Structure formats: structure tokens, C-alpha cells
Amino acid sequence: MPRDKDEPVYMIGVAARLVDCHPQTLRMYERLGLVTPTRTDTNLRLYSDSDITKLQQIQRLTQELGVNLAGVGVILDLLGKLQTMREEMEQEVHRVHEDAAEEIQMLRSRLQEAGLEVVIEPAPETADDVGEEGGTE
């Protein structure tokens, strides 16, 4: 069974090696609020696979793209908000699809109760379905 990506498993030395930096760099990232490793009862930092991914992202932003750490904080915050909005949108789309399916089923039942036949015809062609030369694809 695969490990949960949020399970804290890497001590600071291992995490630093995985992202090719010094442990002190990871401590600085934590002080700045860029990453928040889990703390054990004895106050050891433990990093998860998600933390490692975030650290690699921070390294890429700072080393390859030249973003300063304040900019990294802003970028990570915006990416987090974007992910939250994406998840909320997916949930809303799922809810709308479920509501529409229920409504269609209710309408079909009412039509059948009224003795009407339910016929579903293919949707008409749209401009997206028409090829460049005016024919269908």
C-alpha cells in the first residue's frame, strides 16, 4: 500500500539531502513560514513527501527563476488559493451534474406517468463540430 504523501517521515538531514540544500536553509524556510514540518514529541522536525515537493518548488523558484523568498511566499500562497478554488469548482461541477441527473430522471418519470414516450435525439451540430472546409469532421 502506498504511503500517504502527507505522512511525516524524513528527518531534517534526509530532507535537506533530498532537496540538495543545507539543513539550516530548511530551518530558515520554516522561520519564514514557507514550509511547516511536523514536530515530534521531542521537537524533531519531520518532513512528508508533500513537504519535499514544496521544498523542491521553493528551490526551483529561488535558484532557477531568481525569485526572492518574499516572492516565493506570495507565489506559494497564491498557488494554495488556486488549488482550493480548483477543488471547490470541481465539487460544484459534480454537484450540478448530480442535480441535473436527478432532475432529468424526475422529468422522465413524470412524462412516463403521463403516458408520453421519452425520445432522446442527438444534439445538433455546433460550430466546433464543423471542419475548416465547412463539412463535418
How is this structure best described in words?
By secondary structure, the chain is mainly α. It folds into two domains: 1-67, Multidrug-efflux Transporter Regulator, Chain: A, Domain 2; 69-118. The protein has helices spanning 12-18, 23-31, 49-64, 69-113; strands spanning 10-11, 38-39, 45-47. Strands 1-3-2 form a three-stranded antiparallel beta sheet. Strand 2 and strand 3 (45-47) form a beta hairpin. The longest helix has 45 residues, at 69-113. The protein is elongated. The two termini are 45 Å apart. The mean pLDDT is 91.
- Structural class of the helix and strand makeup? mainly alpha
Low-confidence stretches: none
Q: Using the coordinates shown, work out and report the CATH topology of the largest domain.
A: Multidrug-efflux Transporter Regulator, Chain: A, Domain 2
Query: Largest beta sheet, briefly?
Result: 3 strands, antiparallel
Name of the top-level CATH class of the largest domain: Mainly Alpha
Instruction: Note the beta-strand portion.
Output: 5-15%
Mean pLDDT rating: 91
Number of domains: 2
Shape: elongated
Secondary structure tally, helices: 4
Radius of gyration: 26 Å
Corresponding CATH architecture of the largest domain: Orthogonal Bundle
Distance between the termini: 45 Å
Q: Helical content, roughly? A: 55-70%
How are the strands of the biggest sheet laid out side by side?
Answer: 1-3-2
Order of helices and strands: EHHEEHH
